[in-house]
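Holo model, D-ribose. Inputs:
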Amino acid sequence: MTDAPAPVHHAGPLRVALGADHGGVHLKDLLAEHLAGRGVEVVDLGTHGTDRVDYPDYGVAVGHAVASREADLGIAVCGSGIGICMAANKVPGIRAATVHDETSARLARQHNDANVLCLGERLTGIEVAKGAVDSWLDASFEGGRHEGRVAKLDALLVDGGN
Ligand code: RB5
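Output:
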């Protein structure tokens, strides 16, 4: 088993780390405003402009922020939401999910306890993306039959190859 980030139980506002490459920076900035409007404390890990950058650097930064508990949760955005999600999932304890709508976002939390949400700026409209973020934040992990499966997911990162 990995030492997965603990459930959120500190005092104060929820902290969410945001990261994006150049393909996702516009949506990332809009989501930062949206989150601030919800009273969320945003930890913006960049990028901060449209110069080309590499999505693995930002996906792993979001993953590390959550795994180290600098942030409670993370949101990672690239053009498709795919590459940056692959990067975040390389960090032990991270369960990052690419979602495209409110339903997939809600299920990512309820069934998979996703602690990083990944979105694609080039594939998902702004209002849908905001709705997906809200659905994910408002949902809770259901536990029960999902508990052991999520534990197996976390263990795969440690045991793979042994
Ligand atoms: C960048 O052009 C693009 O490849 C990236 O944002 C992402 O879609 C990769 O998965």
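The chain has a mean pLDDT of 94. DSSP finds six helices and five strands in the chain.
Archived with the compound record.
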